[in-house]
Amino acid sequence: MLVLTGSTWAVEALADVAPVHHIATVRIDPAQNQIDVVDTLTLTAQGLTHFRLSSTFKVSSAKVDGTAVSFSRTQDRLSLRLKGPHTVELSYASRELPSLDDEGGFIDPDWLAQPDDRLATWGIKGSVPNGQKFVVPGRLVDETETDGGYTAQFESLTPSASPILITGPYHVHELMANGVRLRTYFHAELAALANDYLNDTAGYIDGYAATVGPYPYPGFFILSATHPVGWGLPGMTYMGRRVLALPFIRTTSLPHEILHNWWGNAVEVDYQKGNWAEGLTTYQADHAMAEKLRPGAAQEMRQEWLRNYAALPRESDQALSAFRSKTHDASQVVGYGKAAFVFHMLKTQWGENVFNKALQRFNRDNTRKVAGWADIKAAFEAETQQNLSAFFSAWIERSGAPELTLSDATNTDGVRFTLKQIQDGLAYPLNIPIDIETPQGIQRHVVNLVTKSQTFSFATSAKATAVRVDPDTDVFLRLNAADMPPILRDITLDPTAQVVVLGDGVVQELGTELAQSLLQPADPGDGDKTVLIVGLQAPVRTYLAQHHLPAVPERIAAQGDARAWTARDGAGRTLLVAEALDADGLKALTRVLPHYKKRSYVIMQDGQTFDKGTWPAKLQALTVHFE
To answer: Alpha carbon 199 to chain centroid distance?
Structure first.
């Protein structure tokens, strides 16, 4: 999901500047791509003042303190000469809004004239024809529906970036929960899902309020979009109608978007010092939901984060302090997965109670402010009464991850073993759980490894049969990708991946499109580590045999009419093979494979995903079994 908060354009620098207040009246006819705006702005400015306003709008008049004045337009800029505090009235309209029609749509925030160097507050009243609804972020002040159409008024007195505007032929359902107005604005085919969405939303808000702090907005609205979007906005989320219809969204994307109202919206991100909000939201929403839904699912998610990181080329890695937003797959591996794992290590080390209190303090101290990793560090130091500089320096300011080996393990007199950090550079401060297995049961220990090599000894009540390091996947480590089952992400993250498209004409075109949908960058490379092979089934299997490459695995060879799978050849290269019986199958693979990068294989039948999975993993490397 994309969180639209306005922080990306220097909110910290704008926080000390008085916001511009808008009182706007908007008339919209989505079927005609038509919008008319009369906006009264209250602001203080000196000299020539530039307002950002989409070039699709034609300004008919400008008044300053009630007197008509001249203005100039240059592309998406409107310029007025001002002196001191003023009330500015602007009238403008557009008949060219391609993202708006009677099935629903949106208008980007630059529909509201706003100086680049200011935040905004607003009271916006919008009118649409019968059958349509109008929404902008903020508190719903009033709404009426008559034979003449629908009108709603929204207010936001918290300085923020300019609001997006959304319309659609919505069926509205509402639930008031502990003073918070919850609403769904759904297209007709989704209306039956409204009550489930509302009840789940109420539960999530109550849960996060107890864990983090009071819900920071007057309401939360869920709006369905005709476009395949996923946007998080203050007090609302705007998601594609097909996505909202999926049964798992209520336990995945929905809690994630609700939690973003605390992390990223109410507490804004200091992007220049690293985006912490995606990792924290991923941990407290996605990971927490996995814990609730199924035993072992949370550990599987952490293993997935490590597997994704193992596939990341080292030259594509970055420190968490350098992560801004998910611009590509590599940045997501770091900014979401690794960052979430850092929060998991804090919780594991200090316990759930201290972890929650630290985040409550962080929320309390930084709501309606811009915050960075340093503020998170300060909150944890306050609650733990410890200096955490070594931890945050290692995990936030450095790229990379520790690489760990287990050696010299003996069980002759208790247990003795050596742990080594073999990565380049300084040691990471690690708290590592150790399980020592004996016939009488498992002894759990936690060792503190702060140097590159350290030997540990433990007495045992019976002769040890095994030693397992980090058995529950609680420590962020760089795994050896060669020891892990290959997944699609091994190829998609490799900027040097080779591409082989078998066929010409339509097959060549479709194969190229499939490669471009997966690879980052989209152009094929000339590396020797990964290869993407695409084509129709018969030519693909002939090619694999002729080049002595691994054949299609027997378990999936006859399933479906289109499939993709990963394998490793004798030279250690990772292969991704995509084959289909016909062109429609290749089109289907192009559509779905970007969503299954964490998988080893995907099988499709008649354009639908039939099966997917990951090849079994090898024995954990950081385990010793004693005979």
So the answer is: 24
